[in-house]
Request: fold
Amino acid sequence: MAAEFHPRTGKLVALLHGNRTAKRNKPTEEFNHGLAMSREPLGDGQLFQVCIDRKVNSWSGSIEIGVTASDPATLDFPSSATGLKGGSWIISGCSVLRDGRSVLEEYGQDLDQLSEGDKVGIQRTASGELHLWVNGRDCGVAALGLPPQVWAVVDLYGKCTQVTVLGSSSSVVRREEPLGASATEEGFVGMELSDVVNNAILSAYTGNLLTVGLGNSPDGCSITSNDALLFHEKCGTLIKLSNNNKTAERRRPLDEFNNGVVVTNRPLRDNEMFEIRIDKLVDKWSGSIEIGITVHNPNNLDYPATMTNLRSGTIMMSGCGILTNGKGTRREYCEFSLDELQEGDHIGLMRKSSGALHFYINGIDQGVAATHTLPTVYGVVDLYGMAVKVTIVHNHNHSDRLRRNNAIMRALSPDVGRRIFDTGDVEVERLLFHPNCGQKAAIVCEGRTALRPHATDDFNHGVVLSNRSLRSNEIFQVRIDKMVDKWAGSIEIGVTTHNPAYLQLPSTMTNLRSGTWMMTGNGVMHNGTTILDEYGHNLDRLKAGDTVGVMRKEDGSLHFFVNNLDQGLAASNVPSNVYAVVDLYGQAAQATIIDDIDLPPLPDDVLEGNNQISPCSLFSLTPSNDLRFHHLHGNNAVITNGGRTAFRQNCRSEFNDAIVMSSRTLREGEMFEILIQKMVDRWSGSIEAGVTAIRPEDLEFPSTMTDIDYDTWMLSGTAIMQDGNTMRNNYGCDLDSLTTGSRIGMLRSPNGDLHYYINGVDQGVACSGLPPELFAVVDLYGQCVQVSITSGSLPVDNSLSLSNATEKSFPIHSPVPGIAHRFHTNCGKYVALQSDGFRAVRVHGFSHGIVFSMKELKPDEIFEVKIDEVDEQWSGSLHVGLTTLQPFEISCAPPSGLPPSLLELRSKVSWLVSGSEVRRNGTVQKQNYGFSLERLTVGNCVGVKRGSDDTMHIFIDGEDLGVAAAGIAKNVFAVVDLYGKVVAVSIVSSSTLEESESTKPPSMSSGSCSEEEEDMSPCENEASVFMATIEFMENHGRNILLSNDGHTATRVASYNQGVVASAQPLPRQLLFQIRIDRLNSQWTSSLSLGVIGHCPERFNFPGTASSIKRSAWLIQRDCVFHNSLKICDNYGPNLDTCPEGTVLGLLVDSTQGLHLYVNGMDQGVAAQDIPNPCFVVVDLYGQCEEVTIVTNDIMAPGGDGDHLRCQGDLEKADVVDGVKENLCWTPPPEVNPTKTCEYQALCTRFKELLPLPDGYFNEELKCNLCYCESCHKLRGDEAYYRRGDPPKDYALPFGWCRFALRLNPRCEVTNVYKKWHTAYHGTCVGSLRRALDHGELVSGNASIFCSKQAKVELQNGYNEAEGNSAQEKDGVKVSLSPTMRYVGLDHFCPKIRFKDVKSQRHLQAQVAFQVCVRPGSYKTGPPSIGASESIDPRFSNNEIEWVTKERASTVLYGLLIRVE
Reply:
C-alpha cells in the first residue's frame, strides 16, 4: 500500500523517517520545488493522508494535493503540482485543476487555511471519482473519470514546509450532496451566467442533470453569493475598471496625475488581506501609489482628486509615512517607500480583529500603522502620480500567488541575477584568473587579463580558469582585447568541475573528457562531444571589443552571453561549484574580465612582434598622440590606463561628481574622441561632453559641468548649452540615447565652429564663435560610467574604431547601387517568373525550382533574394550558391535540361549551401556552416557573394556567415533552388553596372509601345520616375536601419526613434504603399503614417512622428492629426490592430486631399489642403518593427491580396473555381484590450463567461475572426465561398464572431478541413460543453438550461432520444445549413440573457457551431420550421436544411457567437 513517499521528489524536498516525512529545504528562500508523490499507485478506495507538520508565514498559498497518472520513476518534476500534465488532478486552495487548468473554482475546504496538525488526504474510488478528505471529513466528488492507475501527489508549496504520511486506509466513500443539488428546478434568482453554467456543469458531471432557468426562484433565494473582493464600480473620474473589476487603470497617465481613487466593493473582514499588485508605472510625475482604509461607503462617497484630501474617516500610507484624515501622524512608518516600488511589487493591508491596521510590502509585515480602527472599513487605493495600473491579488488564485511569491523573492534577494560586485556591498572574493594557466598563456593586470604573448607563433595552449567557483546566477564575462587573423577558430568559453589548482591543463579545453561544458563556434560541447550544433552567435566571428560570458543558474541550467545578450539554454543539470574557463584559441589573443567596477588598465604592448591585430581591436583605439585625461578631475572620477581611461566609482550609488578634462588644449582641427565602454541602467540622463576655456588648475570642479556659468560649451542630451544656459534644442544627436560602444568626438574648426561627431559622422555645427585654446571636457553623468580616449585626431581616420557590435548589426549590400538583378529566363521546369524577372515562383511539386542570375557576378557583388512564400507541407528548404554553368547554354529538353534539385547538378562545377552544409558538385565540403537555411521563413533574405579573393560568402538578413568555400572560378552565376517548403522568392539586390537592353528578359507586353504610352502626360512621367526611384531617405530616426536598397526600414532598438521618410516627394494621384513585415508584441501601439510639407533631408526627426509640429498630417490609430493636434476621430480602421502583411498606402488626390488605403481599399479623405510637394513619413513605433515599400504588388480594392492571408488559418488555401477567402485578423482582448473591434471584444467577454476549457480552442489567436460589418468589409470578404470535394457553396456568418477550435491532427492529415463541406449548426449554451467533449455534434438530452424537456423533433438540431427506440438505433438526426441566416433563427439558437461586465448592460447572446460535414453523409431538404419567403438568396429553400444521421460525419471547426 502507498504508505510512504516515492524516493524521487522535487529538487528541494528531503525525505526522512523511512520516506514517511517530506520537508522542503530553504523554506524562507524558496516557495516551490516541493513535490512529493506516493511510492505506489493508489488502490481503489485507498486513502492517502498526510499531516501538516510545519508551516511558515513568508509566502502565499499552502499545501496542494491530488493525483497524477504520471509515474514518479520517470517524471520530470515541475516546480509545482499545478505544472503537472498528462492526466493530473490537483486541489489548490479551494480550486480543482486538471493538467494545470481550473475545472472547478469553489470546492471543499480552502487548503490555504489549514494549520499545523491538520490532516488532508486524497482518495480515488473504484468508479474513478476523486475525493478530498480534510480532518476525517469527505469533501465530496472533486473530479470524475480518473484512470485506474494514479499516484498521490503532495506539493509542499508556499507556507507548507513539512508533512508526514499517516498511513493509508480504505474507506467507504461518503458522498456529500453535490453543489447546487438543493436548487429547485424552477430557476435561480440574481445569478449571472457564469454562476448558472458552473452549477449546471457540476450537476451534470455528478450525475444529477438539473433543468435550471435564468429567472427568479419562487422563494427568492439565490444559489451562490459571489463575495470576492473587487473594486467598486463607482470610482475616480479617470479610472477605468477591467478584469471583472479586479484591475483599475488611470486614463491619460501622461496628462493627468490624480483623480485615480478606487475603493473595494465591500467592507474588509477582520484579518482579511487586501492586496494589490502594481502593473504599470510611468516615469513622469513625483509621488506614486497610496493605499489605506476609509469608513466611507463608496456608494455615497463624493470622490476627491486625491484620497489625502478627505478629512474624515480615512487612514492612508503615502510614501513611507501614515496620514490620518489628510494629516501626517507617522512620518517614518517603515523602511520602504511606496514611491520607490517597481512594477510587479505587491502592497497589502489588513485590519486585525483587535482593530490594529497593518501594511504589507511584498509580503513583509511593516508593523502596526494604527492601533484602533472602526470595525467597518473599506480598502482604498489612490493611483496617484507614477502609479497607473493595479490589480487585486486573490490568494486562492494560483497565478496571483505565484507572481506574489516571485515579488517577495525579489524583495528578499534584490541582487539575484546581477553581477555580485557593487561598491559598498560586503566584500567578497573577486573573480580573477587563476595563476595556473596554459603553457602559452600569461596572467597580467593583477589577475584581470589573460593573453597569449606569442599569439602569432602558436594557436593553442591558451586555457585559463577562474580563481574560484562561480556562484549561482553569477555571470563570468570577458572582453576580447586583441585578436590576430593568422589562425582559424577563436575564443571558447565554458565551465568545468575541475579545480584549476590541481588540473593538468590540456592544449585546448575541448580535449577534456570529464566535467566540462564549452561553447565553441556556435555549438556547445560536453566533455568533448557536441550536444548542440546551432546555438547562439558564432564566437568565431567576434572581434576585439566584443564580450562573452557564461552563467550557471540556480536551477542548474547553463547560459552563455554574447555582448550581454543571453543566447538561451545551453545545458541542464550542471552541478554547482564549477569554475569558469576561457580558451584563448586561434585568433583570440587577449581577454579581460569585466564586472560592475571598472575595466582594468590596458597594457602598452603585450603582443611582442605581433603586427596582425584586428583593426577593430581596442589597441587600435589607443592614441598615437599625447592626448590624455588630466590628472585633476571630479571627486568620483578615477583615471586609469595611463590617462586614457576614466570611470566613475560607486556607479550604482553616485551619479555625478565625475567630470574629466583633456590634459592639454585642443589643436586647430584636432578631434578629441572617446569611446563609451560601460553604462548602468540605474539613473536618468547620460554622458555630457563639450569644451571649456577654463584651465583644469583654475577650475573648482562642480557636481555637473552645466553648473559652470562662464567660458563653457556643453552638449547635454540634444541641448547645446553655453555657460549653463540652453542655446538651442534638438541638435542633430541625442547623447542620452548612446549605448556602449558608441563614440563621441568634439572638434573646433579653424573658423571657431564646434562640431560633434557620433561614430565618426559629423552632426553639424553646434555653436559658433568659440575662442581658441579650449580643453575638451566630459561629464560621466548618470548612466555613463566609463570612457576611453580613441586614436582619432581627424574625423576621417575614425572609421576603424567603430564598435564591432555596431558593425555586425548592419546588413551588407552590393557596393554600388544600380539596376536591380533579374532571374534568367532559362530555369527549372516548374518555375514561373513574374514581375519582369524579379520574382520566381515554383508552381508545382517540391522540386524542379532552379533559377539563375541574369548575369555573372562581379567581384564582391551580392545576389540577394527575399523569401515571399513557403509551403509547410514539404520538408527541406532552398539551396543557394554559385555555378560555372551558363544558363543560356541550358537546353530545355531532357536529358540535357536541369535536374530536379541543385544537389544533382553535375554538368559544371557548382558550389552551394544546403541546410548548414557546403557542397561542391554534391560532395560535402563543410558541415555546420553558419545558420541552417532550413530555418528560414517568409521575410528572411538570403544572399551569395563571390569575393575578390575567390571565396564564396553566404548572407542571412544581411549578416555575413563567413567563408563558405574557396577557390571559386572567375565567371560564375548565382543559382537558387526553390526546393521543399520555399515556394517563391523575390530579388532585393542590385547589380553594379547598368544592364543593356539585350540582357533584359522579354516583356509580357508587345515590343512597341502604343501611341498613348509614348505621349505620357507630365504627371504620369513624374509618377513613373517616382516609382522607379522610390526608397526611404537616408536621414531618419536614430533607431532605424535601412536595407534592401532603401526599400525596407527596420527599427533595431527600443520602441521609438523610428521615423522614416520617402526620399522623393509624393506626386499627386500616385499611391505610395508599405507592407508591415514584422511586429513585436512586447510593445503597445503601432505604426503611424502621413505626409510632411517640407524636405526631410536635414530634418532632425523627433522620437515620434506625433511630435512633428510643422506642416505635418499624421494618421495614428483611427485618428488624424495636424501638427500634433487631433482634427478627426474614427477615421478608417485602427492602425494599431493591423497584423503583419497588411499593406497601407497614402495618396494625395487632385483636390489636395489625403487618402489612406488599407489592403487596397480607400478609407476616404483624411485631410484637405495638402501642400505640394509633400513627403511620406512613417513612424515605426511600438509593435511595428519593420516595413517595406511595395512597388510591384499594389492591390486594387477587391484584389487577391494573397500575401495578406493568415498563416495557420485553414481557410487561407481554399481555392475552388478561382475563389479565395482572404482573411485578416484582429488580436483579441487577451493581447491588448485597446486593439480589437469592439464587437469582437464584446463577444469575447461573453465567451469568457462560459466555463469552457481553453484547451478546446486554437491557441493561434489570429484564427479568431470577427464578421461584423466593419471587420468583414475591411478584409474585403465575399459573402459566399466554396469548399469540399465536390465543391459546395456556403455563406460567411456575417454578424457573428468566430472562435477557432483546436484542430484534430488526424483530420488535418486526411484533409477533412479541405475536402469536406462547410456548414453551420445552431445550438444553445447548455449543449456546448457536451459537443466539445465529443468533438462532433452528438445526440443527448435537452439542454440543461431548459426549464423542462420538450418532445419536439429537431429541437436544437437533434431529436429527443429515448432508450432502445428505433430512432436511437438508426442514429439521431442532426440539422445543419450552409447559411447562418437559417440556423441562426431563434428556433435553433435560443437567446440567453447576460450582463456585460464592462458596460454593465443586459444583453442577449446566441451560440452556434461552424462544422465540416462529410460529403454524401447528409440529405438536403426544405426548412423543418416552415418558411414561405426566401431565407438566403444564394440557396433555394428546398435545399436550405441539411440533415445527417451518420455518426462521425461532422467535425467541429469554430464556435460562433452573436450578441444583441
Notes: The mean pLDDT is 79.
